[in-house]
Amino acid sequence: MQWIVKTFEELTTGELYALLRLRSEVFVVEQACVFLDMDNADQKGIHVLGYDEEQELVAYTRLFEPGIKFDMASIGRVVTSKKVRGTGAGRELMEQSIRMLEARFGKVPIKIGAQQYLQKFYSSLGFIQSSEMYLEDNIPHIEMIRDSV
């Protein structure tokens, strides 16, 4: 997997289109969830894009410094294409995202709003549940925190 990390201003039109398409394919179509994905936060984020050998975007997250999404640094819009699920791409994406976040903001606690069914996956990366279950766009979520190591 080839990894590219850019601010919103650095994204090309093609990269922006590809990341919005991937997020829409998974979060809107696959998960049958109607929501406004473009939440005016992309402009404040750091974008982590993972490309396969065919140069197709297959993995993506956005990173935020403390105070934008949560009081802590955060990782959000974690998404992988169906094409790479089950290959370890999701773990690689999160490991890259944690490294990139720490490179930009230091070794700080990281907070995420995780879909509840992924609790075990995020726990394996050092995240600990920090809230009760809540519904976000009718999907069960929990907040999780990974302390700085």
Overview of this protein structure:
This protein has 149 residues and is α+β, with helices and mostly antiparallel strands. The protein has a single domain, classed as Aminopeptidase (3-Layer(aba) Sandwich), CATH 3.40.630.30. Helices cover 27% and strands 32% of the residues. A hairpin with an 8-residue loop joins strand 3 and strand 4. The longest helix has 18 residues. The radius of gyration is 14 Å and the shape is globular. The two termini are 26 Å apart.
Cα-based radius of gyration, to the nearest Å: 14 Å
CATH architectural label: 3-Layer(aba) Sandwich
CATH homology superfamily name: Gcn5-related N-acetyltransferase (GNAT)
- Sketch the topology as an H/E string, one letter per element: EHEEEHEHEEE
- Which CATH class is shown? Alpha Beta
Uncertain spans:
none
Q: Summarize the amount of helix as a percent range.
A: 25-40%
